[in-house]
Amino acid sequence: MRRCYKRHAVRHYGCIDTPTFSGLGLRDELLAALAELGYEEPTPIQLEAIPHLIAGRDLLGNAATGTGKTAAFALPLLHAMEGVGTGRAPRALVLVPTRELAMQVSEAMHRYGRGLGARVLPVYGGQPIYRQVKALERGVDVVVATPGRARDHIARGTLTLDDVTCVVLDEADEMLDMGFAEDIGAILDAIPAPRQTVLFSATMPPRIRAIAQNHLTDPVRVQIDAEPAAEGEAPKVRQEAYVVQRAYKPAALVRLLDAEEPAAAIVFCRTRVEVEQLVETLNGRGHQAEALHGGMTQEQRDRVMGRLRSGAADLLIATDVAARGLDVDQLTHVINFDVPSAPAQYVHRIGRVGRAGREGVAITLAEPREHRMLRNIERVIGRRVPQQALPTVADVRARRLDVTTATLREDILEGDIDSFRVVVESLADEFDVMDIAAAAVKLAHQASRGSDDHEDIPEVRMREDRARPDRDSARGRGPGGAPRRANRAGPGHPPPEGMARIFVGAGRIAGVRPQDLVGAIANEAKIPGKQIGAIQIADRFSLVDVPASDADRVIAALRAGSLKGRKVTVRRDAKAQR
Ligand code: AMP
Known about the structure:
By secondary structure, the chain is an alpha/beta fold. Helix content is about 40%, strand content about 15%. Adenosine monophosphate binds near residues 39 and 42.
């Protein structure tokens, strides 16, 4: 039975009445920006959150990266903003844990708010402060900041919060993990009421609920649906995930298509723009892909579907909206080019294969940051989606040779090759029959499908959730999430197994705080805050425990960057060598 997709119900995919952004009442300039970006419909978290935020409510949202949460808060924030492009002090502040996220959120807000002329400024540690000061002086509408740098600006008087009417805490659990609890509290206390406060977090530990209790007023609670799928709803298909950095996704897809050789496959993308780009990339690499998205006329879509059904096309690149209701018996593979924005969407997509006892394969390409969405999906479907290593170029070649061998064997068994014997005979005077056969196999092999793939695709491991229970006490962090202090990182205690201790030549006197070190390591060396161990700050130096396998990278990155605006000595702590 097909259920309808209600305005505030997020689990119902597959409805005829598709929810739209215009149905949410967003301003025309925003709708135009979304159309240009190729967004066809709101994701579940957007559908849930946007009406409440437009109504001015505070909101506590449970959503991980990949759900579309950025647009869920950015669109209503821009929608409600008056006098965009005119004032000097920001009207909205978004706090994020890392420099990457600051840039990413700021870019997204800039794209959404372009038609409104919104001025969005990312503000993070590691970038010269004077450049940010200049930009703040020129006037901005939205500041997207890491908490430490935001506080620096507030203390200098270069960031004024008097006009802020909306503040967003994005990835709040990550910010607490990085030791920013105190900074967040101080910043929120400095923003006058009345204001709208929005908090998004992938997890809801007690410390997040405490912040919500202290700083949010009667918030609505939204979360993407985590209800288990009904018995039998998830088809029995081979499901697997590959973790790939965004830039390598097209190459990974080509590799997988070459390895799997699907009879017919559908690749799901988030936007029309992505669909079109991917069609172009795949066709440029020897595949024959067809696009299917909501920007096409019904006639165009019917034509594509006809080609798929007749077998003339075997690779469809589609958005959810366009592929809704699509029912093709031949489909053997569903590929999620991105992790779907909600578990229900995953279940719905993979329901296209493995029907009536047929074999089906569901492949998901995930970015390292999207591990939580994948875990959510596993929880809802009640089974693991194992992470696999991408096949190598050699694997794919070997597989293609197997296929060529099998095809030749079939041809020999079928007979009907007499008319070609004359070719072999005429060459046999000159060459060895074995060489003639090998050359013929080469020709046949080259004529078979497959791309000329040599690309190096770096292997990435999924970021696993760490065990959470005793984390705070293990790091000497107070129950309120106060900055971590290392009660076990003292010079007398060796670092725990698997960790290495790093000496940083700046400490309390230079104003170094644990969150500065965590921020610098997370940003410069790309080590998630959670993996950084105990920290000790002495007057003139600090000691930080990091995973031993990352120690060299952390040292190089810290040496290349700066801490509190200064170059510092960074090396392995000689006393802690085990
Ligand atoms: P986020 O969870 O905010 O990091 O967003 C994940 C990705 O989804 C980003 O690449 C967004 O551009 C994209 N995205 C967000 N909302 C939509 C939507 N309604 N339709 C298609 N793509 C979206």
